[in-house]
Amino acid sequence: MTHMSTLKNSFAGKLMEVLDHVEYRRIESSEDMEDVARLRYKAYKARDVLPVAAKNLIDDIDFDDHAYVFGVYYYEELVSTVRIHHVTPDHRVCQSTGIFPDEIHAFLDAGMTLIDPARFAVDPDFELELPALPYLTLRPAIVGAIYFNTDRVMQHVRPAHAAFYKRVFYADTVVPPRMTKTYGFELTLLASRSKEIRGKLMTRYPFFDSEPYERRMMFGRNEDNGSPPLTILPTARLASGGRREIRGQFG
Q1: What is the pLDDT of residue 64?
Q2: What is the DSSP code (8-state) at residue 61?
Q3: Three-state SS for 13?
Q4: Could you give the maximum distance between any two Cα atoms of the chain, in Å?
Q5: What is the tally of structural domains in the chain?
Q6: CA 224 to CA 208: how far, in whole Å?
Q7: Cβ distance 237 to 208 under 8 Å?
Q8: What is the domain extent for residue 135?
Q9: Residues of the chain with pLDDT under 70
């Protein structure tokens, strides 16, 4: 084993250990949504990236029927949040559509389906203590891409963060950095080819892996049972262990 692979395995192992103390909650109650709004404001204010119109950090598309707002809880404390949109040719609502409409519609006009993560926010009080949080907060985007079998995972991000998405999620640049009216600063649009990268992503970062029942708990919506599960425990360790066992038998 090379020194570099040892480092990667060590890093992935540390993130898996943090994930052991994480739970996800799908945010649908008004009380929990208020907690998410406060966290969004705190995180954006700390980074000086508040949208130009930042009167209320809860918006209509938080309640869109293709939107899934998640809270990430570490030892039962809310530490980060992200909103995941499942975007289809028949349902085009998402954050990226409002920022880069031509490019998003082009994907959808080609018959593709997308996952669009947005409203990513990490509590600044935990950033130094938990450097794994960006990875674990974005994990539902990968879980959702597998659940819905989407063609792309989109990322509209500040140019300084593009290298992270290219390195971790093998993202391609769709739109180079440009000024956006909504935010008043530059953003770039990236896209990961979710079906193509899945194998190497899970091998390199097994904490993104999941069992089918976790995916159903995160993204399934049963009209007969309207309330989502209170907590969703990650199944990455179980799923990645199963993959290693299969590879051992047939590899």
Answers
A1: 96
A2: G
A3: helix
A4: 56
A5: 1
A6: 30
A7: no
A8: 3-250
A9: 1-9, 51-56, 222-229, 242-251
